[in-house]
Amino acid sequence: MEARILRLNMAGQPIEWISWKETTCLYSRGVIGWTLGGEVKKARGGYSRLTGRRSVLSLPAIIACEGGKFAPIRLNPPLTNKALFSRDNYQCMYCGLYFDFMCLSRDHVNPSSRGGADKWENVVAACKRCNQRKGSSLLSEISMDLIALPYSPNPAEYLALINSARIRGDQMEYLRPQFSRYIPPVAICA
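User: That's the sequence. What structure does it adopt?
Assistant: Structure tokens below.
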């Protein structure tokens, strides 16, 4: 799989993953303000008529682009099953078992048939068995509990979720400090 390059705005906020081809276009437009991380790829261009030398561009793992039109910030990340299941670590939020992508489904904690919204804060990954068992019931009406509360990932968390299989160490090192600091309470046994 081809490594992706993390694109930031000039303030260092993560925007999106882009390909090496898109990165070379941004370099040619002169909109890259600063870079971080190791080299992802060497892009080779044409040969100079004057010198006969070939142009080579070293593409870093992280780039920051100037200008508002080149860096739209996505405050509300799109809700997809891929990102949702990754957020929940491919674990059913009811029975606690881990599943492959094809064995999971999106469950609305407050069912859509009862006015529940299709948004991050109301959906969890659920195995098909648990999802069917819950049906259109509220958790208070049946004997099922969530093992973790649903939440909306911030932009850095979302980018890590959608690219988790291909993220480089230097990119994760940059993103991790921007993750939410929420730590669930731990039960202490007497």
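The CA atoms of residues 41 and 65 lie 18 Å apart.
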